[in-house]
Amino acid sequence: MSDTTFAPTYGPVAIPVRELLPWAIFAGLMLMLMIYFVGAEEGATSLIRGTMVHEFVHDGRHLLGFPCH
Amino acid sequence: MVGKLLLRGMLVGLVAGILAFAFARVYGEPQVDKAIAFEEQQAQAAGEAPEPEMVSRATQAGIGLATGVLVYGAALGGLFSLVFAYAYGRLGSLGPRGTSALLALLGFLAVIVVPSLKYPASPPSVGNPETIAYRTELFFIMIVISIAAMVAAVGLAQRLWSRLGAWNASIVAGLAFLVVFALVKAALPDINEVPENFSATVLWQFRVASLGIQLVLWTVVGLGFGAVVERVVAVRDQRGSARRYA
Q1: Where are the domains of chain B?
Q2: Residues 8-67 of A with CB under 8 A from B
Q3: I want to staple B28 with a disulfide (CB 3.0 to 4.6 A). Which of B35, B64, B186, B209 is the partner?
């Protein structure tokens, strides 16, 4: 698409992928881990022994739409 | 730049989480309580000993629910900001607010609405504990397919843009998305584990509340994020174009 114009106005400038990639990988992984702990830990899979995490976020898990027990 | 967007995204997500928590307290918790009452009644009728309460109901419905929804909100806001960082400047000439609102709308459809049409949220006592692994797997498979189909649909719309015009290109891409959804919905196994005597009203209200919580989250993130990053993004755009025309 022609997003290069010769009019002296400014439009959106995309962030280069190589600048974005490290953030996407590291931050993306951390953020998905956060969702994992709310949504699935001590359900189908378990990183921590016991059921405390599951019990603690129990209501949120159900209401956010994750499968639970 | 990405760091600035990420921080703002997580903060907006946190605010969205607070509002979603309030919504969940008012509309969601009464349904959870009714579902648990049903569960206990069934257990009693079957002569089973009541399950030991490891975390009290008050904690689950209070600080536990708040933690879950806030962590989820912050994570959603963060992931949203990363997607925004990629999409901005790559979706035609849409500005920061428009990009944010459009992404939230498409994200809400792809991540929440479409998967929940196949595997809807379920209250306590709906769902067999023995099938949890199977259900979780299908739930995430459905989300991944739905997101992939949405990304492909957006790509298709962009490709057809110049030939069909914005309106028609979007309609064609939307139809393509629907076809994929219909096929996947037919192909993946159904799950129906609602107990026989479970109240249809409670089930319906629980699912509406659950969808409402997500709607609050995605609306606040979609509208809030665009507003919050508008200035940061504008400064960068200006600098970028200054370089371009220097």
Answers
A1: 1-39+57-126+200-246, 127-193
A2: 8-15, 17, 19-20, 23-24, 27-28, 31-32, 34-35, 37-40, 43-45, 51-52, 55-67
A3: B209
